[in-house]
Design a protein that fits this description.
This protein is of the alpha/beta class. It is 31% helix and 24% strand. It contains six helices and nine strands. The strands form two sheets. A seven-stranded mixed beta sheet has the order 3-2-1-4-5-6-9. Strands 7-8 form a two-stranded antiparallel ribbon. The radius of gyration is 16 Å and the shape is globular. The N and C termini lie far apart (32 Å).
Length: 209
């Protein structure tokens, strides 16, 4: 049975309260995590000349914002946890937006790439189509979304890359398409036009953790 709006808000509030209460522990526990292969995969598939404008969706304490900036790109962070927003601004010096994932207000066609590392699994499945449409809308044509999510049951991370097309399906949903080439560590699915009842996102492939 689908959640109603109040239940979705409660789920989001509980998640954010957990991270707010454990922000320092989370920062210390993830400070040395190596996600360089995911960062490289995102940047490699963006069309056009660098530097790029990157949205770090669910930026947490700002570790990856600092990396994108060090590589010469312009990075903007987004997180719903107030303490993470404070940490990310202090850690990276980047612009960081405080927004609930279920109440996004994103500018149109702003970013070349979106880095959604270990974050989209926090979005309830019934809200995922809407969130993906919003992320699609904030990408420039040909922009790239990278999503990597934990898969604890198999001890691996599930990673997917999709490129924002210039067309949509007859329902108005984006037709995500895979990049022209992929690395051996990241799998992309076939392009698909999905209706509003489905995520509008290719099935992810298993990549290394």
């Amino acid at each position: 049975m689908p959640y109603d709006a109040e239940q979705l808000q409660q789920i989001s509030a509980l998640t954010l309260a957990h991270y707010q209460a454990h922000a320092e522990d989370f920062r210390d526990g993830t400070r040395d995590h190596d996600v360089s292969q995911n960062i490289a995969a995102l940047l490699r598939h963006i069309q056009g000349a660098a530097p790029f404008r990157i949205l770090d969706f669910g930026c947490g304490p700002g570790r990856d914002l600092r990396t994108f900036e060090a590589l010469g790109h312009t990075a903007v962070g987004l997180d719903g946890c107030p303490r993470f927003v404070e940490m990310a601004r202090a850690e990276s010096g980047c612009e960081v937006w405080r927004q609930d994932f279920l109440a996004l207000e994103l500018p149109a066609a702003r970013f070349d790439g979106i880095f959604a590392n270990a974050v989209l699994f926090h979005v309830p499945s019934q809200a995922l189509p809407r969130v993906l449409r919003q992320l699609h809308a904030t990408l420039k044509p040909g922009g790239v979304l990278l999503s990597s999510n934990p898969a604890a049951t198999i001890g691996r991370a599930s990673t997917a890359i999709a490129m924002a097309p210039t067309t949509t399906s007859s329902t108005g949903a984006p037709c995500w398409r895979p990049p022209a080439s992929t690395s051996s560590s990241t799998t992309t699915a076939r392009p698909a036009c999905r209706g509003p009842s489905s995520p509008g996102w290719p099935a992810s492939g298993a990549g290394p953790s």
